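Input.
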Amino acid sequence: MKLRPNFLIVGMERSGSLWTSATLNEHPDIASFPSLPFKVLSNPEDQRIGEMHFFNMIASLEPNMEGKFTRDPSGYTVKYGKVFADLISYAKKVPKEKFYKMMLKRYSELCDKQRGNKKIVGESTPAYVFHLDFIDSLYPGRNMKKICSIREPKDKITSRHFSLLGRGIKKENKITEEFAMEYVHTRIVKEYEALLAYNGSIHCVTYEKRHRKPNEVVRSILDYLKIEATDETIDKMILNASFEEMTKRDLKKTVGRVSGDGDMKESMRKGVVGDWENNMDKRLAGAIDAVVLPIREEVFKKYDLEV
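Output.
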């Protein structure tokens, strides 16, 4: 069996990772998950495949993982259709390296099942941006390809706000300074720091350019993955993965959030570029920019990005 996946969509949070995955999944040679509708693991009663959080789960066994958005392995005894349930107990029974190999083999089998008859398969979990070097260490010599979508920080905060509001986690309609700055310091800045620290293979795109020039962005990703596509194929990929097409589906039947953190349909919202202006005052916007813009400019320079 070949090692899977062939690529990962590694971040950032609230920046279009699901769109990227769904778009790639529409290519005849690419399987990418999660995408909408989420694929069922084995039968309709199983949980559906959403964000796997696989690498940040096993990374929880590494030292100094505070603030890296790891997941406790014990959660996998009940999540993801219990695909990993029989292996989790070995985390405390065998050497760490052996446990990693057991989990990677099972993960590879799962990815291969998701691949089906397509040439390549990829998986998307935004928290992987914090574990880029760790992921490489698990696949020595492989040069795992990675894709990262970067979004304007104020729009990320706005998206996060409405996601939590829609899921009932957040009650206050207004985006407060406390909420915004907490997200800036605990997540956004750390995402940029992770990209600056990484020197491996990664293809970065911006959320804003994806909206302005979707065909160009999709083409750049396919070129990075070395997958061919006609202009017509790319047009179809973008259309089928559009917000309008995804929301035509019966979400109650097709969308379940496998992580157990609520129903994805509650947090689906068309991401409008510049929406922060409708939900945030200029003083708060300025405070966010003062913190984020310097490191954001470093990242844009390193990865040769345009908005």
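The chain has one domain: 7-302.
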